[in-house]
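Support case: user asked for a sample of complex input and structure output to validate their parser. Sending the pair below.
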Amino acid sequence: MSEHGFDASLAPLIIAFPAASATLLLFFGRRLGRISGWVATGAVAASFLVGLVLFTTMLGAEAEHEHNMRRAAVTLFDWIRVGDFSAGAGLLVDQLSMTMVLVITGVGALIHLYSIGYMDGDERYPRYFAYLNLFVAAMLILVLGDNLLVMFVGWEGVGLCSYLLIGFWFDRSYAATAAKKAFVVNRIGDFSFLLGIFLLFGVVGSLAFTDINLASAEGGIGAGVAVVAALLLFGGAVGKSAQIPLYVWLPDAMAGPTPVSALIHAATMVTAGVYMVARLSPLYEAAGPDAMNIVAWTGAATALLAALIAAAEYDIKKVLAYSTVSQLGYMFLALGVGAYSIAIFHLVTHAFFKALMFLGAGAVMHGLNDEVDMRKMGGLRKVMPRTGWSFMMGWLAISGVVPFAGFFSKDAILASAWADGQYALWIVGAVTTALTAFYMSRLYLRVFEGDVVVPEGAHPHDPPWTMTAAIVPLAVLSLLGGIINLPEGLPSALALEHFLDPVLGEAVVPHGNAAWLLATAALVLSAFGIVIARGLYLSPDGEDRRSRLERRLHPLVGAARNKLYVDKTYETLVLQPGRDLAVFCAETLDKRVVDGIVNGIGRILGAVGEVGRRVQTGYVRSYAALFFVGAVALFSILLLKVGT
Amino acid sequence: MTSVAPGYFLALAGLMFTVGAVGALVRRNAIVIFMFVELMLNAVNLMFVTFARMHGNIDGQVVVFFVLVVAAAEVVIGLAIIVAIFRRRADANVDTVNLLKW
Amino acid sequence: MTIDFAIFAIVFVVALGSSMAMLFAKNAVHVALFLVAAQVALALAFLLQGAFFVAAIQIIVYAGAIMVLFLFVIMLLGVDRRDALIEPLAGQRTLAVALGLLLAAEIVYVAARGVDLVAATGGDRALRAINEDPGNVVALARLLFSRYLLPFEVTGVTLVVAIVGVMVLAKRIGRMGSPVAERSETSEQVPA
């Protein structure tokens, strides 16, 4: 049943296709064998098509009053009705959710296609696709849900699938550990998220987004409460979207198959936090600048920190992982200055180029016997041309080079920060831009340019067509994707922002000369980063320069190589005490206290028995004596009682 | 009928009962113990007869009748058991049947 | 001192004296004979109180049959077996005597208080009336077969059960697990 405007009854199909496919593969996967991959890909592709249909329907439908809002609700069923609390399960189809749906299903379908080639030969091939489909279904539930509860179901679902997929090769202990780490760290964020949900329900009385946003906009939520609720929900985002201090699980998650990293840890799951904040933007507006600043600065700090670590990593997947953390920081920076639609813009472009680069890394690993150390690679564009050229697109995009997609989105973020008057944030963002360009160029140049270097016994080659067929569209999108939101003055200017305006409100962007100046500044910073990287890694004097630089910046480099000691800090502050507590409970509490009590009771009973058994002397006359004692006692008592 | 007050008879019966109880505890020969039990039963019989007299009806004497019958049956079986246990032993000392001790 | 009281005194002395003597007699046969004496004295006590039938039964059944049975068994198990004097169980004697004195004191106390509980003449008169009119036996019989009919029948069953029980108990179990009476005695003879 739909309201205002257009018929969104196809929406449940979007979720149904991957969900049904997942169920099918879980039960009959083994029998389907190699076909599972195509079934799974087909399901996601079907969702994408339905999404497109719904999208066009939405565009063609009449707009709802003055805000150009196009929204339709699909109620699925009445879920919980307990006393005063009732939460239905429904879908909210509007511009924001459809944008997310298209990204998820589109990029998702490509990654499924890629996986057909990448996971070929794995003995749990069908199970992999079942999990991947399940993930897509959960993610779709997350973005399509019309209330916090449905979103939370999806939230938990993607967390579960992340765990299952990170630890897919569970016989490798580091993979299993990484999966656990991801789940546990996420849980901390989820706890905060739940508290936020409780609070919101208590204050608003409903968990539906429309109700909450209405209450926020109309002042129905007190400022203090709004701040607390916003920050609690943000806590969940910090966990799911790997911001400080809960980002530590993302680099370890690289233990899973590379397509998983591409889909979950680059394009979709980690963006759930960004989506959630954007969806509840009125709440954050109502929470005021204090809360927003926390969001923005968390994002900025994360962006810088992660970029620093990425610059020192040798594992190509880890570089990409930290890069993801850093780019997510950018998105939160944007959210924190009120530029919600720009954050979504960057989400979309990032999905394109990051997924592209992960898939490219996977192709490299595929051709080099799963080697990930960039010190053992070089000049691969000459021997893997298709991969190399595609990866180049991603590199240029993330480095913010015109006219690639990443330039426009990153520039927009920095411009919004400037326009909001947050010059400190701009500076941090700018430095990070330079760093980003630097480390990504370092990665690209070392691996794909220069002399050809391959590990022993590897025969580098371009991957099979299924993998290439997924990479190429993403490369094209990385090149051209900026079109969806070009700055003012160009055709299709601000298309995405205008599209999302009804949902997210207008973003403040600098106009005129300031805009051009800022754009140029961003470009210069990126160029700076690339040039330095080229100087250090591509030129013949590179090694000398590197060692000199390293000596000069020794503490910084050392810290970066050690991931800024964050993991070690967690180890000492949290993990070791946890282990000690567990040991204490097991050894002392359980063995000594509990067992002591139980055994003690046994011993007491035994002792009582030991004493008690001595009554059984075996002599009939003793027993008779006891009879007599009892009888006389009774008689005496009776006598005393009765009196005369 | 005697004119002696019933209380005297009750006292006599009580004393005989006590003697029977003490004897049952002190002696060691199984048959002797049994005989002291019979003594207790006799004392009780006297009490019942006295009560019959006190109440002025014969119900007490009927009870004595039954006690007698039951005592007879009990003696029969008790002695059979004693014979079965002590047939092959050197003496009828009840202290020797003490295997059920802890 | 009326004649009634004198007779009672004799009954008292004989009954209690025999009982005490039972305590100290070492030979089991002596104990049995003292018991018989006590029972005869009690029969006299029954007579004094107007329980004629029961007095007769006491002599015939108790002193006449049951005590004879006792003597049979004593003979069967050996007459000259004597109890040793030392008491192996610690404290048994003291305990028994102490309790005995306590109990005796209590009972005598109760008896003394209740000496005139029912005026000696009150109940006596009724009982005398019963003994005269239908007579002791008839009155007893009437009660036995009307109000106490069920207990009466039950005692019949009790006696049958006792007899069957004794027959079972009396079978000797030999070494082979079967009753000795069934085994041929020739197997124990010296081989020819």
